[in-house]
């Protein structure tokens, strides 16, 4: 199929390279000149495992352009994958989605049918609003255009984006007409039937089953995305709430999570106590869902509580540091990990940013390390001065405490004994429960985890 994708961020670029790999004819559009110049050189602007290899494979067929007018008229299917950042009041800002829809409607041919797919995460009712935007432009142009607006929420996880795109659990499509379902079924056929040869670095998981394509109405499709993210967010907040109580009563939350996760009704995933969630999805999507509820005059105390518990984790960890160091002012604290999770360079709403800002405000000298996300963190924290270190051992040198925020694989393999020896006071606050407390203590650390 001839496809245009608007937006080459984490979702747009992943979708573009995967669909190109599956032999669709893909052009991706972005307004960001820096991203485009990297893409024109064949370089991925985002860090995502495997994306550069896949881009190398498809670079002779995929095209990147700043111009909607150049590519949309000839496309069969157009996907909108632009950002939907939070407004000040938490509601999702759909300005970029509507702007993209307007630009598309301004240039499409009057006599052709197009499927317009909304991939961005959008508040319930956006599908209808986008259809109105398109109709208004057609009226202004004095033409009878033919665009089916379809909702196809994206469920990929950063760090595992390609895996999620090639081997999804399900594909959700919301539309009001059967042609749109057919178009999406055709688009995703190689994935639905798993007829493609997997990339060498990403074999098909052994126990993988063919994913269903769930068809529904647009409002429900939009709601499914918010409900899914909110459920995952509250599962993590739940275990963090239990972790707090474990600390007070002398239980170990990692054992509790293991015990409840073995119940097949609960399952083991998303039960890892720690510093909670960040990133570009859960904070924004839970806030946006509350915004949708507020407009409907509906209360969502469970979602509110999930957010409260989550953001409290960032303050609790600073309190742990204060408790163990007695005073924070003038102390040197080493931070391990800045990305909101491992295997990504994304620092949007990362716990590290809040924690570092709190520490600096208290007069702490902060040193930080991250294998990938330091440039993005430097940009996000441009208003404050901290020291960025190229390796973990420079972070710990003469430090009063170490705080692990992101569970990058390389931190699991650190030489704890060497780290402890270098420090002024060997205190390790393990914000993700990565280490065995006994191993850390044997290495000479005063160890503090979360809920254990
Ligand atoms: N990042 C994730 O893990 C993830 C997962 C699922 C869903 N989503 C949702 O997908 C959407 C995109 O997220 P993202 O993380 O890829 O965002 P992003 O910020 O990484 O990328 C968005 C891109 O769209 C471009 N853009 C904005 N307006 C444009 C326009 N009018 N024309 C052309 N390009 C335009 C921007 O320059 C940017 O490159 C959001 O709604 C998000 O909530 C994200």
Give the key terms.
alpha/beta; Rossmann fold; six-stranded parallel sheet; 19 helices; binds nicotinamide-adenine-dinucleotide
Please explain how this structure is put together:
The termini are far apart. Helix 1 (10-21) links the parallel strand 1 and strand 2 (25-29). The chain is built from 19 helices and 14 strands. The protein folds into two domains: 2-215, 3-Layer(aba) Sandwich (Rossmann fold), CATH 3.40.50.720; 310-448, NAD(P)-binding Rossmann-like Domain (Rossmann fold, 3-Layer(aba) Sandwich), CATH 3.40.50. The longest helix is centred in the middle third of the chain and has 32 residues, at 218-249. 46% of the residues are buried. It has helices spanning 10-21, 33-40, 51-58, 68-71, 95-107, 126-141, 161-166, 178-187, 189-193, 218-249, 253-261, 282-296, 301-325, 351-361, 374-380, 392-396, 409-412, 416-422, 437-442, and strands at residues 2-6, 25-29, 63-65, 77-80, 113-118, 146-151, 171-174, 213-216, 332-336, 365-369, 387-388, 401-404, 427-430, 446-448. The mean pLDDT is 97. Strands 3-2-1-4-5-6 form a six-stranded parallel sheet, with helices on both faces. The protein is of the alpha/beta class. Bound molecules: nicotinamide-adenine-dinucleotide. The site of nicotinamide-adenine-dinucleotide has 26 residues, from helix 1 and helix 5.
